[in-house]
Amino acid sequence: MASQRLRTQRRAVSMASAASLDLGRLVQEAEALASVLVTRPTGETLLTRDGRRVLEALNLGPPTARMIVACVSSHHNMTGDGAKTFIILLSKLLRGLQAILDKREGSPFCEAIQRSKRDQKHCHSLKQISQSLMTFQTHILDHIMAQDLRKHFLSAFSSWEGEISRDTMESILEAYFCGRIGNSHQKLLSQLSCDFYYRCIPFKNGKNEMLDLVNEYFVELHSAVTGLPVSNSRILEGLVLHRDFAVYCPADGDIRMLILTESIDSALAPPGLEFVVNAEVQYQASQVWITKRTEAMMKHLQNNNIKVLLSSVKQQEIVIYYAKISGISIVECLSSEEISLLCRTTGISPFIPTQDNIRSEISETMIAKFCRPLVLGSKRYVHLGLTRTCAFEPHCVIFCGPVHGITEQHASAFHGAFKMLQQLFKAVDLSDGCEAQPENTNNTSKTVNDQQLKTSMAETEKQFIDSSSWVDENPSSLIDRGSSVREICNDAMTAIENTSTSVVSKQLDAAQEYWKPGNPIVPFKFEKSYKHTVQSYTNLVIQAGSVLPVGGNFEILLHYYLHSYAKQCQQPKITVISTVIADALLSIPKILYRTTKENSFTQVCFKATSALQTNQQLPMHQQGLESVYCKYQLVASVLHCLTKLLTIDLIIGIKRPPQKTEVNDSEEDL
Question: What are the recorded GO MF terms, alphabetically (predicted)?
Answer without folding.
Answer: ATP binding
